[in-house]
Design the sequence.
């Protein structure tokens, strides 16, 4: 009960709101509320401000953290697109992905983590789009070759593949993917 009556130390000011509350432990121990509610407003307010500041610090630290995962994902997506020969089938998206990744790496070196994170995410998306087109065209081309080997070649499927490649080179990845998928359906 000494804590209840010896107000003034920093520890006491932090404990006041807890001891003077209507917490069941206070009633069990036979402690009385010794402080009027007006005196509690200051310490309670301080605790709330401290808690709010701690939450803000954690939030800011999370936002300003190094975008390790995003950078790794972007690099992997770009490497995967290169392996699929995306530069040949979707050069605009591939070039965009590579430039965004370079920019993200520069931002990372400068400590501009939010900008690095944004560019890394965009690089990943562009690389994935380029890879998707490259894979669709490669699969369509393989399906046409299989059809030729079976003796059921389709000139229209080959024409669709040519159109898909042209659309991809012009930056119309959606159209390129659709044409490649149509060519593949024709020969299966």
Sequence:
């Amino acid at each position: 009960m000494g804590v209840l009556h010896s107000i003034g130390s920093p520890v006491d000011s932090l404990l006041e709101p807890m001891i003077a509350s209507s917490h069941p432990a206070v009633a069990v121990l036979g402690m009385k509320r010794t402080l009027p509610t007006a005196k509690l407003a200051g310490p309670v307010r301080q605790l709330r401000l401290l808690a709010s500041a701690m939450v803000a610090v954690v939030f800011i630290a999370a936002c300003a953290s190094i975008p390790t995962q995003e950078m790794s994902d972007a690099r992997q997506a770009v490497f995967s697109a290169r392996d699929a020969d995306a530069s040949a089938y979707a050069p605009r998206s591939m070039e965009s992905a590579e430039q965004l990744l370079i920019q993200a790496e520069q931002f990372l070196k400068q400590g501009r983590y939010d900008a690095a994170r944004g560019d890394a995410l965009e690089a990943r998306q562009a690389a994935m789009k380029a890879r998707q087109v490259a894979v669709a065209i490669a699969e369509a081309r393989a399906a046409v070759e299989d059809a030729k080997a079976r003796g059921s070649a389709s000139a229209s499927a080959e024409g669709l593949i040519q159109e898909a490649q042209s659309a991809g080179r012009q930056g119309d990845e959606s159209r390129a993917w659709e044409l490649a998928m149509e060519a593949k359906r024709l020969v299966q």
Summary: The chain has ten helices and no strands. The first helix runs from residue 2 to 5. Residues 135 and 148 are 20 Å apart (CA to CA). Residues 1-9, 11-15, 18-23, 25-29 have pLDDT under 50 and may be disordered.
